[in-house]
Write a structure and sequence with these properties.
The chain has one domain: Roll (Thiol Ester Dehydrase, Chain A). The chain is built from one helix and five strands. The protein is of the alpha+beta class. A five-stranded antiparallel β-sheet has the order 1-3-4-5-2, with helices on one face. The model has no long low-confidence stretch (mean pLDDT 76).
């Protein structure tokens, strides 16, 4: 992550009980990875954990080969309470699997 929180990059390997990402039902796991990356960018951008993220996911292909996924999220635009983030997941060979975009809202006040 850059010092000002504009980018996060995460490399993920499948859990031990999977034989690779191709054996994973892609929807829930990949959208969760994108959501976490978008949220991390929001937390770093606002310098605090009180954020909530909204995510839109676009799948490029249903399964992937290889043992590692690279999740990247970048801050695109930032206001006082709202930032826009773009994210994607690539396989080890650079093939784009999923794209996403999201909005991260800074939560104001006590819970």
């Amino acid at each position: 992550m850059t010092p000002d929180g504009t980018r996060v990059k995460i490399e993920c390997t499948p859990p031990g009980h999977f034989q690779g990402w191709a054996n994973v039902i892609h929807g829930g796991i990949l959208s969760t990875l994108l959501d976490e990356a978008i949220t991390y960018v929001g937390i770093a951008s606002f310098d605090g954990p009180a954020v909530t993220a909204q995510l839109e996911v676009r799948f490029k292909k249903p399964a992937m080969a290889g043992d590692k996924l690279i999740v990247t999220a970048n801050r695109v635009k930032m206001g006082k309470r709202l930032i826009e983030v773009e994210a994607h997941i690539d396989s080890e060979d650079g093939e784009r699997i999923v794209e996403g975009s999201g909005k991260v809202m800074k939560v104001i006040g006590d819970f």
